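Morning F.,

Quick status update on the modeling queue. The single chain you submitted on Monday has been processed. Sequence for confirmation:
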Amino acid sequence: MKTYLLSLLLLLPCIAAAQNNVQHRKDSLRNVIATTEGKEKLDAYYKLTMFYFTASANDDRAMDTLLIYYREFDAEALRQENYKTQGTIRINTLGAYMNRNQFDETIKLAPEYLEYLKEREVWQQYYAVYQKLLQAYMRKGDYDKSLEEAKKMYDEAKQRGHDDGRGIALYQMSYLYGNMSRVEEEVKYMKESIEILKNVDDMLWLVSMAHFRLCNALLNLQHYDEVLQYAQDFEKVNYRYEEASKSKQLSSWQNLWRIYLSLYVSTEDYDKAETYCYKLENSNGGPAVQYSVYQARAKIYHARKQYAKALEMAEKALEMCGGDPDCTNGNLATKIWILCSMRGVDDIHEMFVQSTTMRDSLRNTKFNAQLDELRTEYEVDKITAENEINRLQKIRNRNYFLFALCGCALLAIALGIWIYYSRTIVRKNRGLYLQIKEQDRLAEDLEREREESRKLRRLVQSEATGLPEDDDDIFFERLTVLMKEQKLYTNSEIKRQDIAGQIGLSDRRLHDCVKDNTGMSFTDYINSLRLAHSRELLSRLDENLTIEAIALDSGFNSRVTFYRLFNEKYGLSPKQFREFVK
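Structure tokens below.
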């Protein structure tokens, strides 16, 4: 105990120094962010977020801090219009949520990120975000949704001609089938993914992972020749990957060595298998690597009849299972196998195997009997269900007939109402049309009376006073002639000043002249001439003019204005007026 405490006290200064060093590096990066611009600032943000990324999996405060820095990082990348960096930030954000098993949060954010990246055509990051979405559905256990989205992703990428998107989609489909224990489909889609991605240098990291997963699937199928072939290709990919990335890819080599180790153990070539045990032990690999070595050495030592060492390795492998049922069961079987060999009870082992085989056979017999019983129940239920479906179908058909009958009755009523309403509208519009004609006649009579009145007034004024005629009457008559001959009102851009200049009046004087002679403002006077002109065009049935063309030809700026003024004056639309003319 004293020794343990002494060691702990000796380590405390080292731990404190390491923590101080990390804090110093964080402070240094914050200072770089505050004092620099451009790529250097983005690089500092990236390094700072990496400090918090790993810790965020189990530390809420680290996660909160990470998200704050991601938002600042994203805003700075947007300010620099560096959309690829924005895509990387969003990929890492989803990765942080995935590390915390917050799959719903990933599913919530991913569609927004995808839309943003698609608008900016940042396709590499787009497909990486899509991959995170597929992984989130899969890890939630929603395999159907994950497969549906993977197929959608494949179709999108194929339409755009993007090999990387197609390859990632196929990789995820294979991964999904592997989790569903559908090994044949896993192998098929992983091979297709490799074939598409092998010539895309930016995707060599995924090609390496694809080889690892494919080889494991082929090992499960005991296709050892294919495993060896793809392991050799795997080695070439790793060399290309290191050359393209200009860095050592130790994890990829560890995956390859694990494949060779499993292959040679399965084919009982234990000398070669031991070579890869040494490689993996010297590579300082993680728990997965150590577990592979312990499993392999247990089988190697057993084959060499070094049972004590084999048992030791089996126990170490069992300790690393962490309570996983499949892992525990497999290693317990290995341990029993070794113990039987250690104690010279091969016959017991043989009997145990026979007993297990017989137990499985009996279980299968019972299972088949239960299956027959279930099949019989299914057939009975099926016939019952079909009879019930037929009965419901008859009821449904009768209901459909009644519904159709009611529908026809309602349609007949609606048709009668529509006919009555249409006839009422026709009668009303016919009355309005006749009123318009009567108004035209009255307007003509009124105009003649006004003309006669003006002539009489000028005559009386001339005979009685010897004064010249009233200027307003002369100018209005001149305006009337001008409008009839030149039809200036058909010009939608005509202004009062233009017309006043042509007849020799001021703008204000023209307004007063029109007001005194018609009782209307100048604008209303012009619009009345335009409406009269439009009615004349609407009445010409031999000319195939549209309502819009008539509106423009009459001097109106828009169809809406024409309809409004026409309806206000005459009480019906231009279309209805034309129909009554016909």
